[in-house]
TrEMBL record:
The lineage of its organism: Bacteria, Bacillati, Actinomycetota, Actinomycetes, Streptosporangiales. Its cofactor is Fe(2+). GO terms for biological process: carotene catabolic process. InterPro entries: Carotenoid_Oase (IPR004294). This is Dioxygenase.
Amino acid sequence: MTHPESSSPSTLNESSAVRPNQFLQGPFAPVGQEITVHDLKVTGTIPTELNGRLLRVGPNPIDPENPATYNWFSGNGMVHGVRLREGRAEWYRNRFVRDDQVVASRGWPEVPGPRQAVPAPRYARNNHGNTNIFAQGGHTFAFMEGGSLPFELSYELETVARSNFEGTLNGAWTGHPHRDPLTGELHGIAYRWDWSYARYLVLDAQGKIRKSVNIPLDGRPIIHDMALSRRYVVFHNGAVQAHAGLQAQGYDFPYAWDFDHRNAWGLLPREGTSDQVVWCETEPTAAFHLLGAFDLPDGRVAVDAISYDRLFHKDFTGPTEAPARLDRFVLDPSTGRSTLERLDDTPSEMPRLDERLIGVDRHRYGYFSSRTKTAADATVSRLLKRDLDKGTSESYAYGPARFGMEAVFVPRTPDSAEDDGWLMTYVSDLADSCAEVVILHAQDLSEPVARVHIPQRVPLGFHGNWVPDEELPS
Ligand SMILES: [Fe+2]
């Protein structure tokens, strides 16, 4: 049965082709130059305990094949890094992640390492590395989901090799691994267009896959993120599903809102097997980014997610069709049901928390990137802190024509309180065509403690992480 609101491929094509692609313009517009800048100008004082690299990655398309069908998720990757040491900003670097399209376009040598054929769609077949960047096992990796293999980068962010984690990764990695602070392992859910299952993967602290569980799926969803509670791996089989009609029309990211799909959260016991997965049905939603999950004393599980009431219904260039809002889903594995509570009506995305709590304890605070419009249609970009116990929020506005990105929380000391630490994010300044790393104390969003000035714009992108010297020294 087809839902009356379902779209036919012919209407899909017309709806996107008539509009300019916003993900190739303004704050999203790619930069062409790789630069290296030493001894960056700083306003304020960089906390001396911040020694390491603030890394991020995002799409920076070198030559989109068709701007009408270009999807934000599909651009070639570009990494950005700022190296902090003892109160100084030693360097900024931005580098393309050298996928085949980038090296062919620039005449650079091919990158060595393992390869695999991915049949479709284009965003995975082109094998980019645009979604996330982590250090694990003494190496830095940029990567994406859907079937692409990770890229290993040097400390200075040059692409060194393609990687399958020393032969232990097969098929696909994830865009959103989460680190268990007790073991140092990275946990993620991989999926592919051509798989009828998702794959739960654990990458050990030495950088090798130690656990792999195939989980049969109803449908072919995008499963972009996951969360860990103390007892469960939590993930969502939501309303955005693979769409063969879009694939046939050449869309980079051929996934669409499926009105007929039964949405459900999956709960896999942390060291369990695929037959132990419990599904909890929910209203149709797209929950691409999860803030975190925790177990309740009565056996239920709470997961806080950024969810959309509609996405990829008529616009296949990116997540544009509904505001992103913070919801709490409470899942009952004993009944297979769930309840939903809207925690915050403020449009917000890119959720982060104090990662010492992942899989360990209930989080109280969440940090988000929020963009709203003024009456005059100007965008206001803010860093938003949400106190989930009190139900209150505070925020820092970056200023006119300035766009903040995902903020990373770094505890001030290993045992400081949940919000006693630093929030760091890249900010793109459209008017002056430059960027900054802004550092705030998470308990005082009135004013940054430091702003590190970068003389080139950083396009709005995806995810990043702080890699302290204790984790990976230079
Ligand atoms: Fe993401």
